[in-house]
Amino acid sequence: MRLPLALIANVRLLNSGFRIRHSIHNGVTKTSLLSSHNICSGAERTWIKPAGFDTGVKTYNSLTKQKEPLVLAQERIATWYSCGPTVYDHAHLGHACTVCYSVILVLRDSYVRFDILQRILSRIFEINVIHVMVITDIDDKIIQRSLEQNISPTVLARMHEEEFKRDMQALRVLPPAVYMRVTDNIPQIVAFIKRIIGNGHAYVTSQGNVYFDTQSIGNRYGKLVNLGGIVGELGAQDKRDPRDFALWKASKPHEPHWESPWGQGRPGWHIECSTIASSVFGSQLDIHSGGIDLAFPHHENEIAQSEAYHQCEQWGNYFLHSGHLHLKGSVEKMSKSLKNYVTIKDFLKSYTANEFRLFCLLTRYRSAIDYSDASMSEARSTLSTISAFCHNAQAYMQGHLQCQPIEEGILWERLSATQSSVRKALADDFDTPKTVDAIMSLIHHGNCQLQPTAKVDGPRSPAVFGAMLSYVREIMDVFGVDLLDRKEVHDSSGVLNNVVEELVHFRSEVRKFALSVEDQAPQDPLTGSEIQKRHPQPDRVPLLNACDAFRNNLAPLGVHIKDRGTNSTWEITRRGETRKN
């Protein structure tokens, strides 16, 4: 005799420490669950402020829908988990601007944006961020694409995994402490599911599927989002509740599969993240990041199954979500399925990694962001202003740029105020737009005093510009914007630098000779003073013209020479790089 599924469920719940309560309201019998375990006790959706090390940073927590003090379990150590790519296609800017892929719509959690946040925590607030990222290398999309291309899912996944890593390196995204593939953790996933079943929070169907039982955790399901009107994952016919989600999927013909106590199959989407995060960080996680579209169902389900596994009240303390990247004029987020994306490779043909980082810095990480030529032009212009200031400040320090006496005290005060305001802005939910505004204001005041003049009277003040230059470079480096453009280059580039240096030096000597005035200018016989301005000697004018032509001809080739009186500076600009003397 086969017992009804509902009766079996009630028995399992009673054996797991749950009490079933029936109530009648308006003639309708309602069944609810009470638990003797911590998992369902007390105020079921109340966020518990962690005890531990207060970083001095406030961050917006999706669990509370407000800014909260960022408190870490261990002093100056942040455990951080982010979902990684589902590797079946090229990475696009939506990925670059985000850090988590979903199975259906691809990820939305800024690789660059959250890379910036991690850099801020590490460099400004001296937090050791331990970042773990999963590589989803088995999934419906991967299986479908492998069938279309007639290659194995493993080969397809490995190809796109390496391409993804190269793209992230090109965008200067720091790699996590470790990448962990789903297929390398199947035994751990099976064990994780078995424990959830044993704790009374999942069930096996006659078809060999395993589902999480959302009713078993009562009102705790829905910590991140209001579930009113949400019916859960559709398509399966063997679920008890529409909100229940797959932990293990029974195998289908021609699909990769693994052995399990429930038959051959493969992991569901959400279980991989809970298993891998728990295998590294245990029962408590400081920070989980992702795109806002992953809050439900992915992150909601991660919370449910992780707390069911660990039998804890709060698994992840902070959930940080980034806004979508949109193509200008489109209300849809950038994604592969909508075919409205720009690949990272194509993007880097027109813009640089530095420019994309400025583009991200100009908006809050939680805000939606519009990608367009106009928005990229704004980022490029901002970066150009910063780079020009650094170049001019360096030229002033080297004595190549002559200016009137500097109001040094004002600049020292501005620098101190900027350092204070930047730290304050970054401690307020990583406010990068306000930080960039503060840096640009400092640069404006510096530029106001870096006005070239032909004649200099009084002392020079290179030290204050050295301090300003160092700070601007440092804070940009914190954000991953490399104003010094330090990276591996071909051996020939060093030769090129030396050749350009010698050519510009030779041109400067020729130009200095050409600009020398007549040995004896005509004088007024009565006063003895010069009756006209000094001019270069006529036979040297062709040399001066040749020097100007040489400078103008090199500019389209990427070599830019700037004349500052009788001295000259130069820089080489190529797509994606700038090198200066």
UniProtKB/TrEMBL annotation:
<dbReference type="GO" id="GO:0005524">
    <property type="term" value="F:ATP binding"/>
</dbReference>
<dbReference type="InterPro" id="IPR015803">
    <property type="entry name" value="Cys-tRNA-ligase"/>
</dbReference>
<keyword id="KW-0862">Zinc</keyword>
<feature type="domain" description="tRNA synthetases class I catalytic">
    <location>
        <begin position="74"/>
        <end position="380"/>
    </location>
</feature>
<keyword id="KW-0479">Metal-binding</keyword>
<dbReference type="GO" id="GO:0006423">
    <property type="term" value="P:cysteinyl-tRNA aminoacylation"/>
</dbReference>
<dbReference type="InterPro" id="IPR024909">
    <property type="entry name" value="Cys-tRNA/MSH_ligase"/>
</dbReference>
<dbReference type="InterPro" id="IPR014729">
    <property type="entry name" value="Rossmann-like_a/b/a_fold"/>
</dbReference>
<keyword id="KW-0030">Aminoacyl-tRNA synthetase</keyword>
<keyword id="KW-0547">Nucleotide-binding</keyword>
<comment type="function">
    <text>In addition to its role as an aminoacyl-tRNA synthetase, has also cysteine persulfide synthase activity. Produces reactive persulfide species such as cysteine persulfide (CysSSH) from substrate cysteine and mediate direct incorporation of CysSSH into proteins during translations, resulting in protein persulfides and polysulfides. CysSSHs behave as potent antioxidants and cellular protectants.</text>
</comment>
<keyword id="KW-0067">ATP-binding</keyword>
<dbReference type="GO" id="GO:0005739">
    <property type="term" value="C:mitochondrion"/>
</dbReference>
<dbReference type="InterPro" id="IPR009080">
    <property type="entry name" value="tRNAsynth_Ia_anticodon-bd"/>
</dbReference>
<comment type="similarity">
    <text>Belongs to the class-I aminoacyl-tRNA synthetase family.</text>
</comment>
<protein>
    <recommendedName>
        <fullName>Probable cysteine--tRNA ligase, mitochondrial</fullName>
        <ecNumber>6.1.1.16</ecNumber>
    </recommendedName>
</protein>
<keyword id="KW-0648">Protein biosynthesis</keyword>
<keyword id="KW-0436">Ligase</keyword>
<dbReference type="GO" id="GO:0004817">
    <property type="term" value="F:cysteine-tRNA ligase activity"/>
</dbReference>
<dbReference type="Pfam" id="PF01406">
    <property type="entry name" value="tRNA-synt_1e"/>
</dbReference>
<comment type="function">
    <text>Mitochondrial cysteine-specific aminoacyl-tRNA synthetase that catalyzes the ATP-dependent ligation of cysteine to tRNA(Cys).</text>
</comment>
<keyword id="KW-0496">Mitochondrion</keyword>
<dbReference type="GO" id="GO:0046872">
    <property type="term" value="F:metal ion binding"/>
</dbReference>
<dbReference type="InterPro" id="IPR032678">
    <property type="entry name" value="tRNA-synt_1_cat_dom"/>
</dbReference>
